[in-house]
Amino acid sequence: MNPSPEKVRDPKFLDEFFDPRDLVQVKYEMLRLVSVEKASVTEATEKYGVSRPTYYQTKAGFDRSGLAGLVPRKRGPHGPHKLQGEALAFVQQQLVAGQPVRARELAKLVRQKFDVAIHPRTIERAVAGKKTPR
Predict the structure, then answer these.
(1) 118: helix, coil or strand?
(2) What is the pLDDT of residue 79?
(3) What values do phi and psi take at 69, rounded to 5?
(4) Distance between CA atoms of residues 29 and 67, nearest Å
């Protein structure tokens, strides 16, 4: 959803087909205005109520991934970024087949050996393979 649909001033968004609350549609039409109708970036950003940096980020996302690049992404880390490399290998070496994961104990061992604070749930997820490190 577009957090600022009231800022969209393009007349076509007064029609029922174009919805100023649809962020992907707003971004696409803004890019189309510049590339097809040869409007300036400044004109497009004013019509669509976004900043110039937002336009260039939107264009980069579209150039990189097509229409999917216009869909907002989840912010923040996308996986156990602290638990990788040597620390992950260390955790995997401590696991014993057939026994439950001792995540709290492993978190303490990782903190002692690598001076990195890792939440026990991060260890459980990494071991289960739900979110593997990048």
Answers:
(1) coil
(2) 66
(3) -70, -10
(4) 12
Closest CA to 35 of 90, 131, 27, 93: 27
| pLDDT tens-digit map of 94-114 | 888 777 878 999 999 999 998
Confirm if 13 and 19 have CB atoms less than 8 A apart: yes
Secondary structure, 3-state, 24-85: HHHHHHHHHHHHCCCCCHHHHHHHHCCCHHHHHHHHHHHHHHHHHHHCCCCCCCCCCCCCCC
Does the structure show a pLDDT above 60 at 80? Answer: yes
3-state helix, strand, coil in the chain (%, to 5): 55, 0, 45
Per-domain residue ranges of the chain = 5-70, 86-128
pLDDT tens, residue by residue, 10-32 = 999 987 889 999 999 999 999 99
Average of per-residue pLDDT values in the chain: 88
For residues 126 and 106, the answer to whether their CB atoms sit within 8 Å is: no
Query: How many residues does the structure list for the chain?
Result: 134
What is the reported pTM? 0.59
